[in-house]
Amino acid sequence: MKKQLTWKGKLVTHAILIAFSLMMIYPVLWWVFASFKTTEDLTRASLLPAVWVWENYPNGWNALPTYTFTYFYLNSLKVNIAGTVLHVAAASLVAFGFARLTFPLKNFWFSILLLTIMLPHQVTLIPQYAMFHSFGWINTYLPLVVPAAMGGAFFIFLIVQFIRSIPKELDESAKIDGCSWFGIYWRIIMPLTKPALVSATIFSFIWGWEDYFGPLIYLNSVDKYTIPLALRMFIDTQSAVAWGQLLAMSLLSIVPPVLIFFLAQKHFVEGIATTGLKG
Fold first, then answer.
1. Cα–Cα–Cα angle for 188, 96, 116, nearest 5°?
2. Mapped to the 3 state alphabet, what secondary structure does 67-89 carry?
3. CB neighbours (10 Å) of residue 14?
4. Mean pLDDT across the stretch 135-162?
5. Count of other CB atoms within 10 angstroms of residue 202
6. Dist CA 54 CA 31 (whole Å)
7. Cβ distance 227 to 214 under 8 Å?
8. Full DSSP string of 166-219
């Protein structure tokens, strides 16, 4: 039988876990408290501010000329909601085809799809830019949104593995009842792949929300900037940087993805835990 820990053993175990938890959360705590500090106060070793500067948040929100952070939040939401919807919709449809349909060279094309995951983004950057420039898409959101309609190899693989764990007998029963392949996809597979779809949604939204390189390459106008580019505007090499305001705005910038993760945490964990388990 498994030996039960004594109260002293439990006390030591909890103390160690709490100590490691504090070590892990310390950078976040420093970030939170630093957002209330002055620039001079940031050089002090103390975690808590010497003087609490609550004005960092309203001043940071309105720090940039002409545009407030509300504008950049809306830009980021527009781009990421559209991109996330396209990512998940396209990936689920393609994944259903690879997991359930039979067509020539299916395994070959699936292998090619997986190989694209290993392809560095820098390799395709110049050809993509030249292509989007020829389309007249530079300084628009199209280069950031339209590629999501391809589904993304990682999301397709994630959903394929989940669909393969669903018994094929459900498909056969639906076909006997006269259901088409699209009907099977929409009425049978999609409701059962909800955890995988939620996982793909969270990944897509977070990766898109924190994307700095894409908007930097394709967007030229400040009125189209997303939050990562807006945060970059705080750092002026010609003058002093208001670090307190920058930290305050960067802290607010993570609120949407953190909320999405915690609201969908149950389905996210289920999707990750069951992906790849074939029943």
1. 155
2. CCHHHHHHHHHHHHHHHHHHHHH
3. 10
4. 91
5. 21
6. 14
7. no
8. S-THHHHHHHHTT--HHHIIIIIIHHHTHHHHHHHHHHHHHHHHT--HHHHHH-
Distance CA 229, CA 234 (A): 9
DSSP 8-state code for residue 150 = G
Q: pTM of the predicted model, to two decimals?
A: 0.84
Query: Which H/E stretch holds residue 31?
Result: helix 7-34
- Over 232-260, what HEC string results? HCCCCCCCCCCHHHHHHHHHHHCHHHHHH
Tokens of 163: 């669909």
Give the position of tokens 């149950």. 266
Count CB neighbours of 256 within 10 A: 17
- Tokens 């949104």 locate to 145
- CA 91/CA 106 separation, integer angstroms: 16
Instruction: Look up residue 122 and give its amino acid.
Output: Q
Residues in the chain, overall count: 279
Tokens of 148: 């999501």
Distances (CA, A) of 143 to 8, 131, 138, 264: 59, 10, 7, 28
Average of per-residue pLDDT across 43-55: 87
Mean predicted confidence (pLDDT) in 53-62: 90
Over residues 18-28, the pLDDT tens digits come to: 989 888 898 89
Instruction: Show the domains of the chain with their CATH numbers.
Output: 7-59 (no CATH), 63-274 (1.10.3720.10)
What is the CA 192 to chain-centroid distance, rounded? 22
pLDDT tens per residue across span 87-139: 999 999 999 999 998 889 999 999 999 888 888 888 888 999 999 999 999 99
* Distance between first and last Cα of the chain: 31
